[in-house]
């Protein structure tokens, strides 16, 4: 698909176009989990658009899918979102070669930009090897790249978990337009990222608790990806309003919204919005189910995902999610069977088997 800018223009394009909040879409599956549920995926694209987000990230790494299913998933999302909202995808496959194949495919089906991290089967021995691998992957696509260092954790190279000289080298790659910070990482790394490369790329912190610093002090204009829709509704897009109010410099109004948001967050901002207990920074594991359950409560498709990401949500975890969502003052969906098979499938008569 032809792009409206060249690689050398990618940074300028991003500065002009990447603003606001980027949401997350997880794959939906058929009730027996044997294949993708295309109608359910398309439903969730429209649900996220209605939430006034500026972009959608296809979280292909957060559900157990074959490589071909991952390619089909992003193709469905791009088709449904075409001309309506930016679409990105995580490129965190098994190997460098799979990463490059996914990038080529995503560009072909109409993706907007890429969140590029490091594949599982990558063992860098030196900072220079990190740069060479990253440069090689960026060279195979014309799409803008949002750089993600959050899972590599090469603390042996630098106590920030990523070599800072390499960070600056990567920022100079023509189509690297942004850098996503990892939730739970060292605050010093956040400061260094804005200080060292914030004049070249869009450093973006997805954590709402940090926005009084990252927006007001460092000029962050875009955040993602995160399950922001699980803390708002289309009629009350309070996360979008919170972010935009900070960007507009309305400090008192923004802080009032900030504290109102934190009232409903477990641990005053240190807990998980979805109910997971482990630190993402340390595990690197994205649990799709808490997000999908919260989204379903508010109108999304829902549906179970495959193991190992699809371990059952316990009743007390669901109760915690629902208690937080009640603060939004909207009716929550409560037919658990609908969640298990997916809202679209349930409307077509699908039900859980009885034994």
Question: Which helices and strands appear, and what pairs or packs with what?
Answer:
Blueprint: H1 10-17, E1 20-25, H2 38-50, E2 55-58, H3 67-81, E3 86-91, H4 96-108, E4 113-116, H5 127-139, E5 145-148, H6 164-171, E6 176-180, H7 187-197, E7 202-204, H8 211-214, E8 222-223, H9 238-247, H10 251-263, H11 280-283, H12 288-297, H13 315-325, H14 336-341, H15 343-347
Parallel strand pairs: 1-2, 1-8, 2-3, 3-4, 4-5, 5-6, 6-7
Helix pairs in contact: 2-3, 3-4, 5-6, 6-7, 9-10, 12-13
Could you walk me through the main structural features you see in this protein, from its secondary elements to its overall organization?
With 355 residues, the chain is an alpha/beta fold. It has a single domain (7-343), classed as Alpha-Beta Barrel (TIM Barrel), CATH 3.20.20. It is 41% helix and 10% strand. It contains 15 helices and 8 strands. It has helices spanning 10-17, 38-50, 67-81, 96-108, 127-139, 164-171, 187-197, 211-214, 238-247, 251-263, 280-283, 288-297, 315-325, 336-341, 343-347; strands at residues 20-25, 55-58, 86-91, 113-116, 145-148, 176-180, 202-204, 222-223. The chain has an 8-stranded parallel beta sheet with strand order 7-6-5-4-3-2-1-8. The longest helix is centred in the N-terminal third of the chain and has 15 residues, at 67-81.
Give the overall form. Answer: globular
Count of helical regions: 15
Order of helices and strands: HEHEHEHEHEHEHEHEHHHHHHH
Going by CATH, what is the homologous superfamily?
Aldolase class I
Rounded radius of gyration (Å): 20 Å
Q: What about the largest sheet?
A: 8 strands, parallel
The total count of strands amounts to 8
Q: Helix content range of the residues, please?
A: 40-55%
- Unreliable stretches covering 5 or more consecutive residues: 274-278
* Separation of the first and last Cα atoms: 49 Å
> CATH class, anyone?
Alpha Beta
> Remind me, CATH topology?
TIM Barrel
Spatial strand arrangement across the major sheet: 7-6-5-4-3-2-1-8
User: How much strand content do the residues show?
Assistant: 5-15%
Structural class: alpha/beta
